[in-house]
Specification:
With about 425 residues, the protein is of the alpha+beta class. It folds into 2 domains: about 10-180, no CATH class; about 205-415, no CATH class. It is about 45% helix and about 25% strand. It has 11 helices and 18 strands. The chain has helices at about 15-40, 50-65, 70-95, 140-145, 145-150, 185-195, 230-250, 250-285, 295-300, 310-325, 370-390, and strands spanning about 5-15, 105-110, 115, 120-125, 130-135, 160-165, 170-180, 205-210, 215-220, 225, 290-295, 330-335, 355, 360, 370, 400-405, 405-410, 415. The strands form 3 sheets. Strands 8, 9, 10, 11, 12, 16, 17 and 18 form an 8-stranded mixed β-sheet that branches. Strands 2-6-7-1-5-4-3 form a 7-stranded antiparallel β-sheet. The longest helix has about 35 residues, at about 250-285. Bound molecules: zinc ion (ZN). Zinc ion binds near residues 344, 346, 347, 362 and 365. InterPro entries: Cas12f1-like_TNB (IPR010095).
Length: about 425
């Protein structure tokens, strides 16, 4: 994933002895801002404040007086706390235990207004003015193969912000610089504007359309996973064999039916496991935060005229994916499926004539595409719409993008090309 749109490069700093105290002081005051904000946001028994703008309004003036930090660092401290409080509220909503965030680990958040990131040094804002810290870098001829050489020193990447950290045992300071791919500039500026409100970050989701003919699962990135037709074929073979055995009516035939039945079940589960792994791999390749399906009730309903087996495979597949991502950063969520197959993912025009089996052609704008790929995009678009209308996503973002074949598209239709290949 060398071409991932964001990455972090840790850089050791050479901080002169007389300046080290300034950094510790910055950290103390920064954490003070975060902890004061956390106290403020968590002060009621049954209600937490998760609005960054409210917190800034209430606390910014006081914290400027209580500390010697620059405006930007005070603001970062407040935001850091509100993000943690918002995360806590999400946990409470899902019935998990949590407590008021308390900040005591050594860390300060910098961005371009409170720091400069230069070729061989950084300048960092402190309560006692700007401090210059040289980078401790690998030798020049070895640098190319390091994250510093590949990303930090590369023209393709821009340093956007950084976290200053301190290794207590070694008594060393490190700057963890976050770099963005310039292809994402448009999007990230858009994000800056949004983030004045409450949006912590952008999320990217993968829409998935499940089918009983053609490809089993089709993603909004244009991946066609597994063949539903071959699954059906395998099932039909099994049914025919069972039918023949049933006709013989003997006891040994009955036992054989049981044995091929459980073998077929094993085979199907194995197949679904593998397809779930394929899908999760695609989610990682596309660097998404969430995988979105149509809700399961619909899967049952929509294929009511299909076999019980086909209903079972779809429901089981979604459950397997949910189970597999449980311990990872990825989440699974569901959307209402109405008209996802009839809506044009390009212009939004919805009509039943738009779709003819696997072929989609928009009667309004003429957009022609594989029908399942079109549906998968609509599933992702719908999820983004939920977030726009303020319904909480599991990732907690306010704006959202869906992963597409060759870039990302947010719900406003701003297209961002990506260097990701394949
Ligand atoms: Zn259209």
């Amino acid at each position: 994933m060398d071409d991932a749109p964001r990455c972090t490069v840790p850089i050791k700093l050479d901080v002169p002895g007389e300046s080290r105290g300034d950094l510790h002081q910055t950290k103390d005051q920064f954490l003070h801002c975060a902890n004061r904000t956390s106290d403020w946001a968590w002060r009621y028994d049954d209600y937490c404040i998760t609005s960054k703008s409210k917190a800034e309004k209430a606390l910014y003036g006081e914290l400027r007086e209580e500390t010697n930090l620059t405006a930007n660092l005070v603001q970062k401290g407040i935001r850091r706390a509100i993000e943690a409080v918002t995360g806590g509220v999400e946990k409470l909503k899902q019935g998990e235990k949590t407590s008021q965030p308390y900040f005591d680990s050594w860390s300060v958040v910098y961005d371009k207004r409170s720091a400069t990131f230069n070729g061989d040094h950084a300048t960092l804002s402190t309560p006692n003015g700007r401090l210059t810290a040289e980078y401790v870098l690998p030798p020049k001829d070895e640098r190319e193969d390091t994250p510093f050489g590949r990303y930090y020193a590369s023209d393709d990447w821009d340093a956007s912000n950084a976290t200053l950290q301190y290794d207590e045992q070694a008594d060393e300071f490190y700057l963890h610089v976050t770099l963005k791919n310039p292809d994402y500039k448009v999007e990230s500026e858009h994000q800056e504007v949004e983030s004045r409100d409450e949006a912590p970050e952008n999320g990217v989701v993968l829409g998935v359309d499940l089918n009983v003919t053609g490809a089993f699962a089709v993603t909004s990135t244009g991946e066609f996973i597994g063949s539903a037709d071959s699954l059906t074929h395998k099932r039909d073979e099994y049914e025919r064999r069972r039918g023949r055995l049933q006709q013989t009516g003997t006891r040994s035939a009955h036992l054989t039916i049981q044995s091929i039945g459980s073998r077929f079940l094993d085979w199907s589960l194995d197949w679904l496991h593998n397809r779930a792994n394929d899908l999760i791999e695609e989610a990682h390749n596309a660097d998404v935060d969430g995988i979105i399906f149509e809700n399961l009730d619909h899967i049952r309903e929509n294929i009511a005229n299909s076999s019980k087996f086909q209903q079972w495979t779809s429901v089981t597949f979604v459950e397997l994916v949910e189970y597999k991502v449980e311990s990872t950063e990825l989440f699974v969520d569901l959307v209402n499926p109405a008209y996802t197959s009839q809506r044009c993912s390009y212009c939004g025009f919805t009509h039943e004539d738009n779709r003819d089996d696997k072929h989609f052609k928009c009667q309004d704008c003429g957009y022609e595409v594989n029908a399942d790929y079109n549906a998968a995009k609509n599933i992702a678009v719908r999820y983004c719409g939920y977030i726009h209308r303020g319904q909480k996503s599991r990732g907690g973002w306010a704006t959202s993008q869906l992963a597409l074949k060759s870039g990302t598209l947010n719900v406003n239709g701003d297209y961002t090309p990506t260097k990701l290949s394949g």
